[in-house]
Design brief:
The chain has about 270 residues and is an all-beta fold. It is built from one helix and 23 strands.
Length: about 270
Amino acid sequence: MTELVVRRTNKPAGEGPVAIVTPESAGWSYVGFEVYELRRGDRIRQSTGARELCAVMLAGQADFTVGSHAWKEVGSRSNVFEGTPDSVYAPPGQPLEIRASSESCEVALCWAPASRGAEPALIQAAEIKPFRRGSGRTERTIHNILMEDRLAEALLVTEVLTPAGNWSSYPPHKHDTDDPPRETYLEETYYHRMARAEGFAVQLIYTDDRSLDEAIQVRDGDLVLVPRGFHPVAAGPGYDLYYLNVMAGPTRRWLVTTDADHRWQLD
């Protein structure tokens, strides 16, 4: 099995992350990602330490405390296919507590090393304006959660909904070279969910010289790592696809290079 996919575990709710990647486990420097399933009253307690963190409510509601800041019943949807998310940003050096306030909830913790960060913040679903990218068989809906228009030190977080049978992250692009303003180096994770649990998608990850050349069958709950290369995704016919992207690198800008073979499709 490829080392670029982390399969979701069947760990009982409240007993630790069901999916996790750290810079150490991925063999890179910036992106960390964890997903937790909680029952009412379950808690996550940790310090952000030398990290900044964006907690995205995938489903259900939770109460948050970040240092002296507190927000109750954060969460705006029952699953990732039902609208935009509530999220909470936490800077470095802050105690963080998340307590499930609905019968069950699912929360993703997206993080990257940081020294300054920004002020703790609740990012409400109403602040996120969905928009379309692509057309025809490449059309998808984007929810920018913590992109360049919001304050942070390193993190970039967005989510994408791709209709069944459509291609996404397309035309194929890459961001593995630190050469702004042409391109920025950004490590990236894709956390995939299917509208039907038996569904599947396919994610390609490849470089120009094909020293990296993977075709990954993606199932519900899979976490795919993109250390370098182009990385388009195709949703299987009949299976709507959601993914949550976390990116970070030395420069907090999303500047990409499109595969030269497919650049004509941008015209």
